[in-house]
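Structure tokens please, single chain.
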Amino acid sequence: MSQSQDPKKPTRKPTKKEAIESLWKKNTLFWKLDENQMEMYKFVQNTDKKITVIGASRQVGKSFFLCTLAIEECLKNPNRLVKMIAPEVKMVKRILRPLMREILLDCPEDMVPEYKTADYIFKFKNGSEIQIAGTDNGHAESIRGTKAHLCIIDEAGFCSDLRYIVNSILIPTTTTTQGKIILSSTPPKSNDHDFVRFWQQCEMQGSFIKKTIYDNPRLTKKDIEQLAEAVGGKDSVEFRREYLCELITSEEDAVIPEFNSNAEEDIVQTCSRPPFYDAYTAMDIGFRDLTVVLYAYYDFKNAKIVIEDETVINGKRLLTDELARLIAEKEKKLWVHPTTSEVKAPYMRISDDNNLILLNDLQIKHNLTFLPIIKDSQEAMLNHMRMIIKKRSIVINPRCHTLIQHLKYAIWNRARTSYMRSSDSGHFDAIDSLKYLCRIINFSKNPYPANYELGGKDTYFSDQNIKNSKLDNDILKLFTIPRKSRLNK
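Here you go.
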């Protein structure tokens, strides 16, 4: 056995330089990231969506993470093409290139990519490339055409023509490579920016991650306090937008300004259904937009409207039979009695009157009766709903993603005659569905029997106490066939 193979001889620990070189040789760079950046790294790696959005605070290290991701992609895979875009060419020179140099500082010499200044390209020895461009003055056109395996847009909230760049330049380059597109930025000043649309769309699809200043492990509480003070305090628009990554919508533009972050925290939650309630189904029909159906009940004791679930159908896929099937299945799933298996029919179903033929088909062919809403005043119905939200007289289950997103992001058009189009190809249609629901709730109807609780809480069947109800068990025994019965022979 040679000396190098002698098990009795202690193994020499590699030096830090040798360990770093070994990691580079393994094409592994995530060790350069802090715990916050690692969360972004894992999220991007695990998502199966074409587009991922990272809402990132200032000084959270997002650009360093993105550059590290781009280099690792090129090292791991020969002949890969990564496209990196920034709002301006001068940002490429001022921020991205210095970050790339910083990351490559300890890279082994035989692995360091060559930077071609004239073309803004980092060319690796294995044939992979990182192409960098700005969006100003049409520079993004320089990365059109060639196939891409990863596309990154840093500070996407400040890129001009973002939707055109993503849809017309980047997506076609990833069609055959199954490449991913990552948009990262702090929120833009205006929520009319295309980045906000991508943000909302990815948030609804589950391909969105937010990182605030509080996620930065390199900053102390005192550091954050000083940052907040420098921009006008923690309640200032600047701190909320730049460091908390909030999409700030002015109250003048917001359709539901009452549904702010505090209201969302109070309203969006799960709750136990009471033993007696009146159920409601509300629908807004869309053909070019979305059809949104909400399933709710009124909690009389707590004076709360509880939205339990939703059904959302893109207008192009709206078929009467399919709509009826989805509604019937959802009502059965939500409101079936656990013992009798009897489905509790809604006290009322309501819909807009945009298609009376569809409502008639639902009634005649599928036994689903929807009353058309009496549109006495759209503004009055909307204001009524806003007051309910303001008073926190409503609870929304977290699974109602579309409703929550529409309440958060709906804004008026410039003439304030209609809502702007939403990022899910709709028209914030869930708001109208909720508006109709709030309009027809019978707040004065008491669903509890007159002698409820006079003989104890278990006097009646209920979803909550069915397993503990003595009376329920006694009734069930009456219908249980004895083992020795002749019927069992």
